[in-house]
Amino acid sequence: MRFDVFSLFPEVFSEYLNASILKRAQELKALEVHLHNIRDWAIDSHHTTDDTPYGGGGGMVMKPEPIFAALESVLGAPPSCPVILLTPQGRLLTQKIAFELAEHPHLALLCGRYESVDERICQHLATDAISIGDYVLSGGELPALVIIEAVTRLLPGVLGDPTAPQNDSHATGLLEYPHYTRPPEFRGWRIPDVLLSGNHAEIARWRRHESLRRTLQNRPDLLKNALLSQDDLAFLETLGYQPGEPITPSTQT
Predict the structure, then answer these.
(1) Has residue 106 been placed in a domain?
(2) Among 14, 112, 140, 195, which has the minimal tally of Cβ within 10 Å of its Cβ?
């Protein structure tokens, strides 16, 4: 899979891209990341990429000319792949969207900066807009890295366990169950006996119940859209959950 990333600060990507899973993915030829500095397409001697907003107001707005020129120079006109603008105004990134993006062989990520980008970029260049949360960052570089990693983990052969993405938190609509490793006892805290039992059916049942418990405690809103069996509902009811009456984390005991 190929990512083309357009940013005013492409140098911030290198260290993270050359570590851990992303480094492995590139070595396996499963991932290509090409970084482009938008300033290289600015047409004046000062490489200006922003200006004051029409109508007044604080902050600066990224100009359309260098952004259109950058993307069309690299990707063609119109761009040959989806163009995702990283912005707090975009749709919220979820694991479902990560799976959706992983179906594309090529994606372009446009990192906003300053107050915003000129609206003509949103209307006539970007084909999608994504946010990684209901908060504001100084730019789209960190969100771009988040998307690259979230999508890369889903590519075949990247992770050691090919089933891992299907078991991650949010992949099934629930948070993931707790994990333990050696030693079986640490500072008097033992791991649950069921994990040492060798009974795989009971281990699977325990993991499902703990996933439900953790979701109810930390993200009860997810239960609304999760696929729940009768056994799931019966277990949740023992914890005080009533379908149709979401419990907020603050009310959990």
Answers:
(1) yes
(2) 14
